[in-house]
Amino acid sequence: MKKTALVTGGAGFLGSYLCERLLEGGLKVICLDNFITGSQRNIAQLFKSRDFRFIKHDVSKYVDIKEKIHFILHFASPASPVDYLNYPIPTLKVGSLGTHNSLGLAKEKKAVFLLASTSEVYGDPLVHPQKEDYWGNVNCIGPRGVYDEAKRFAEAITMAYHRVHKVDTRIVRIFNTYGPRMRKNDGRAIPNFISQALTNEPLTVYGRGLQTRSFCYVDDLIGGIINLLMAKDGPRPKGKNGWCHCPVNIGNPNEMRLIDLAKTIIRLSESKSRVLHKPLPVDDPKQRRPDISKAKRYLKWQPNVGLETGLRKTIEWFREN
Ligand code: NAD
Ligand code: UDP
User: Fold this and answer.
1) Are 171 and 54 members of one domain?
2) Number of domains into which the chain is organized
3) CA 20 to 30 Å from 128, out of 27, 77, 174, 293?
4) Are residues 66 and 193 in the same domain?
5) Is 155 in the pocket of ligand 1 (CB under 6 A)?
6) Is 117 found in the same domain as 62?
7) For residue 293, is it within any domain?
């Protein structure tokens, strides 16, 4: 008997790769999505599999699924700053009500629950690099607060369901991830820069471009998430949370300035574009780099795809699409 996984947000960038990887791993997959930022195109190839099923639904509303489910991966949420600024209330709802509904379903089905959290829970971090035990520096009433606080609430309710209802939970804090299938207009730095470079338009670097990020290629990220989903915690003192129930950073620690990212993309795509500086968005984090020692130690995971290799594959995909 095959086990079944439910992926909320499965028609999005990361969700579609997860559905694919879970099917390849021999699971049945139910993908639930309302297409607010995802697309049918991302999952079109998955309908070939008899083990794949799609449900069009808003996870912030009650979710009713009859069959047995063994794993729930809650990935539904607008994820790019442009998207969550366009959809502030749906973002707050999917992080709160959507997470509550998904946890309720996990409790009912006795399923393992994995929450897609984010490096944004660290806000504009005062500790660098960011380790899981850093509590963050978030402006809860700023424009990014709708996303950051929704994810912080999502983490809090996930831990509460683990402690109170004994749901077997996991929390992955995902750092900036990129690759084929990102929407050209989703507003994030890499799809913006690549689509601008391929049309020889100026690359819009916000501020002086001295802010840093650490970019992870999607294949690496998905590998880390699957390891976390399948992880088991060993013996532990009574009353203590196992390591795998507390958040784990997954990302690539290769940190760089945005201005250098823009120049790299111009070079790799052999573009004639120049750089155009635009105002820095409010509360844009100045620095970000994951400390991945926990993932290395417990999941035996680390990223393998270098930035230039990942960017070349992504540029190629944008060229073809
Ligand atoms: P995405 O926008 O491509 O995917 C999100 C998917 O969720 C979309 O298909 C969207 O339609 C769906 N969705 C949103 N609200 C929904 C709702 N109420 N009901 C049903 N479906 C809904 O974004 P992504 O980059 O694939 O991000 C996926 C998850 O990973 C998000 O939870 C995001 O917060 C998290 N994350 C991503 C990154 C990254 O770098 N890509 C970084 C940190 C965290
Ligand atoms: N950024 C930029 N130009 C763009 C889009 C983004 O300079 O066209 C900057 C943005 O200000 C931020 C960084 O790139 O400092 C990463 O932004 P992104 O939206 O990719 O993700 P974030 O890490 O901010 O969630």
Assistant:
1) yes
2) 2
3) 77
4) no
5) no
6) yes
7) no
Q: Is the CB of 34 under 6 A from ligand 1?
A: yes
> Active-site residues: which are they?
147
Does ligand 1 come within 6 angstroms of the Cβ of 205? no
Q: Return the sign of the alpha-carbon dihedral for residues 225, 227, 230, 234.
A: negative
pLDDT at 235: 63
Compute the distance between CA of residue 5 and CA of residue 81 in angstroms, rounded to an integer. Answer: 28
From 106, 103, 118, select the one nearest 149 (Cα to Cα). Answer: 118
**Ligand 1: does its nearest atom lie under 6 Å from the Cβ of 116?**
yes
Scan for tokens 């999505």, then name that residue: 33
- Give the domain extent around 267: 189-213+254-288+305-320
Residue 107 pLDDT grade (very low, low, confident, very high; cuts 50, 70, 90): very high
Ligand approaching nearest to the C-alpha of 86? 1
CA–centroid distance, 281 to ligand 2, in Å, is: 9
Centre of ligand 2 from the C-alpha of residue 204, in Å: 10
- In this prediction, residue 234 has a pLDDT band, given cuts at 50, 70 and 90, of low
Reported as a single tens digit per residue, the pLDDT across 240-274 is 777 889 999 999 999 999 999 999 999 999 999 99
Enter the pTM of the model: 0.98
